[in-house]
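Teaching soon. Invent one.


***
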Amino acid sequence: MERALDLLATFSTTEPELTLAELSSRLNLSASTTYRLLVTLENRRYVEHNHQNGGYTLGVACLDLGTVFLVQLDLRERVVPVLEALRDQCRETVHLGILDHKAMEVIYVQKLDALLPIGMMGSKVGGRVRADCTGLGRCMLAHMPLEAVREFYTAKGLSARTPNTITDVDRLMQVLIDIKRQGYAIDCVEHELGVKCVAAPVWNHREAVVGAISVSGPEQRMDHLIAESNLVEKLRATAHEASVRMGYPGGASVRP
């Protein structure tokens, strides 16, 4: 792993293309070892091989990583103030997440801890969780092409995280259709025992979903917030303000 990372770090804006011999020399590795690293990286699309001149360049997977980094950086910087306001209103844990479309996993890019006592909640900034059984993930899956989502989970399968986790692909697809229509998602203790979550999507200037915001807490407190404190409306208003900060051109409310 360390050698592969060293190899990727050898490329630069001044030397975007290097040959096998040049890479071997820079890394102080044999040509055979360097070649094996390159084959592995090429198979994962981290490098590309120009067969005409023998050179290697960084591959599209590096661009994917850079794009994820830029999205999460821009998103977090722009919406943290509205996340703080939401957390102060509801006093429960607020998350901001983005979706790794290849792995169908949520990446947490911000977490604001609850102002009320709460037991162990496993989320942490930089952590990853399944998209199918979380409010954040479902908000983003619902705005992907559903046939692609169905194909992924039909191949991968849906295992139970809790007794409430949806494990039937057809049922998950219907839930995603409902989420897209209503504009928010609820995780009914489906990812973590005792924890309930409500989430809404964040849109950008291209009218694409780039992330989601959630409020999470103990099931009983969340049920009270949803029933008595207009939590869904507050969350959607926060997601709309976050979307506006990301350049969303929509009107008074983010479209369902």
Observations:
- The chain has a mean pLDDT of 90.
